[in-house]
Design goal:
- The protein is an alpha+beta fold.
- The protein folds into two domains: 143 residues, Sandwich (lipopolysaccharide transport protein A fold), CATH 2.60.450; 38 residues, no CATH class.
- Helix content is 17%, strand content 43%.
- It has two helices and eleven strands.
- The protein is elongated and about 110 Å long.
- The protein starts with a helix and ends in a 16-residue tail after the last helix.
């Protein structure tokens, strides 16, 4: 009869060989390319003249996101936009519009990134002139009303205000803008409006102030004539 050790040795050897084979197979699969196409960055669908909107709880329009072309990639669940335009609305507040050459929507749809020649326009109000912001990269979070960038920005506001900085945080909900680094401001005070000057009544050179007062009183009290009320300014010669 075979001893116990003689039986266990080949079983142990087979188990170790199976374990090594499984490890080699896993290593090769992780390093080698997959043949099912799941690791390729290929789009699964594309839309032209893409437009999406969102409303608030009362059904009023909050924002509109449009693009000339939208492409979705399944490997990282990202969306690429060509010439995106984002317009945000608010009740009794000016609308804000953001546009760029390219854009990216995150997989959860919470952030939109604008890249290349990014322009932000805030509509003018009776109290404030139109504001424009230029930068090369801007990330917005529509549900939080936030726009941020680490890139240089140039801000102009009518009539003659210009601000440059590096990095910005714009909170539309609270109407605040925080500039992060190297801030420079150029401001020109508007010219004062022309105020009309009241004309003073001129007194004839040969007539004294006393004589002028007497004449005024006689005109006001002469019988059979209408009473005249005057507010002329009488100056001493």
């Amino acid at each position: 009869m075979y001893s116990r050790h003689a039986i266990m040795f080949p079983l142990t050897l087979l188990f170790m060989m199976a374990l090594i084979t499984f490890w080699i197979n896993q290593t090769v699969q992780e390093q080698g390319p997959r043949i099912d196409g799941s690791n390729r960055h290929d789009p699964d669908y594309r839309l032209e003249n893409f437009v999406t909107t969102q409303t608030d709880v009362n059904g009023k329009l909050r924002y509109v996101l449009a693009a000339s072309e939208m492409t979705h990639y399944p490997d990282d669940d990202t969306t690429v936009l060509q010439r995106p335009k984002f317009t945000q609305f608010a009740v009794e507040k000016p609308y804000t519009q953001i546009q760029g050459l390219r854009g990216y929507i995150s997989s959860d749809g919470e952030t939109v990134e604008f890249v290349d020649n990014v322009k932000v326009i805030r509509q003018a109000t009776p109290e404030k002139g139109e504001m424009q912001l230029l930068t090369e990269k801007l990330t917005i979070e529509p549900n939080k009303d936030l726009a941020t960038t680490q890139s240089p920005v140039t801000i102009t506001q009518a009539p003659k205000t210009k601000v440059t900085a590096v990095g910005m945080v714009f909170d539309k909900k609270n109407q605040t803008m925080t500039l992060l680094n190297r801030v420079r401001v150029h401001y020109e005070r508007p010219a004062p409006k022309n105020v009309p000057v009241a004309k003073a009544t001129q007194v004839k050179p040969k007539q004294s102030a006393k004589t002028a007062k007497v004449s005024k009183r006689k005109v006001a009290t002469t019988p059979n004539k209408k009473r005249v009320q005057t507010q002329s300014i009488i100056r001493k010669p």
